[in-house]
Amino acid sequence: MKNEMSPVTYTYFVTLLKAYLRGTKTRQELIEELRGVTPWEEKEENIHTEVSRLLFQVANEVNENFYQDIVSAITHATDTAPTREGVIHQLEAVLTGFITPEQLYQWATWHNEPDMDAVSFFNDIAVDYFCTQLLPASFEELALTDYKQALKIFQSPHHDSLKDKVALVLLSQKERQRFLFYLGDYIQGHSSPEQLDVYLLHKFGMDHHSFPYMSALSAMMHEPAKLPALLHMAAMSE
C-alpha cells in the first residue's frame, strides 16, 4: 500500500529533479538521495534509464498522486536549464570518475528529448553551446583532456560568456586551424569584414561587431605572425 501520509511531499522530488536538470546534482547523487527516501536498488536494466524516470518510479512508490504534481511543476518551471555551476559540477564528476562521459552527455542533452515538455531557457551562451552543440556534435571525439580544458574555460575568473564560447569552439585542433586560416586571410587583406562574418557567424554565432577579439585582430592587420598568439589567448590554452 502506498504511503499516503508520507512526510516527503511532491515538492521534494521537484527540487531534487531541478537540481539534476540544472546540474548541481549528478545522476549518482540523485540516486543516493532517492535511496534515502525509500529502500531501492538500481536494477541492471535501469543503468541507462533516463534519471527523471527513475525519480518518478520512486515518487510513485511514496504516493501515486505525486506524478502529475511533479510533471506539472517541472513543465511550468523556468529554472530547469543547465547552468554554469551545473556544468562545472558535472565536469568535475567526470574527471574524478564519479560519473561517466556518457552520463554527462545524458545530463547535458536532456532538453533535446522529444518527451521533455519543460520550457526553460539558457542564460549563458557558453553553457548553451556546450549542451546543445558541442556535446551532440563532437561527443565521440572528446577526450578527458578536452573535458579538463572545458572545465578550465567554465571556471575562468573573467566569466565572459562570449569568450568562453569561442574557447569551447576552439577545443579541437581542426577548429584551431580554421581559425588561423580565416582570420589570417582577413588580416592579410584578402577578405572583407563581411566575408569574415560568414566564418564567424557559422562557427561562433557572432559577426565582426560582436566577436570579442575583433579589436585585437584589427591591431595586427598585415602582421600574420602575431595570429598564433591570439589563437592561444582565444583558446585559453596553457
The number of distinct structural domains comes to 2
User: Gap between N and C termini, in Å?
Assistant: 59 Å
Order of helices and strands: HHHHHHHHHHHHH
The total of beta strands comes to 0
Please count the helical segments: 13
Overall body shape: elongated
The radius of gyration is 22 Å
Mean pLDDT, all residues: 90
Q: Could you please describe the fold and organization of this structure?
A:
- Helices cover 59% and strands 0% of the residues.
- The protein is an all-alpha fold and 238 residues long.
- It folds into two domains: 10-166, no CATH class; 172-234, no CATH class.
- α1 (10-22) crosses α4, α2 (27-37) runs parallel beside α3 and α7 (125-138) packs parallel to α9.
- It is elongated.
List keywords for this structure.
mainly alpha; 13 helices; 2 domains
Compact overview of the structure:
It contains 13 helices and no strands.
Secondary structure: elements and pairs:
Blueprint: H1 10-22, H2 27-37, H3 51-62, H4 66-75, H5 84-95, H6 101-108, H7 125-138, H8 144-154, H9 161-169, H10 173-187, H11 193-204, H12 214-218, H13 227-234
Helix pairs in contact: 1-4, 2-3, 5-8, 7-9
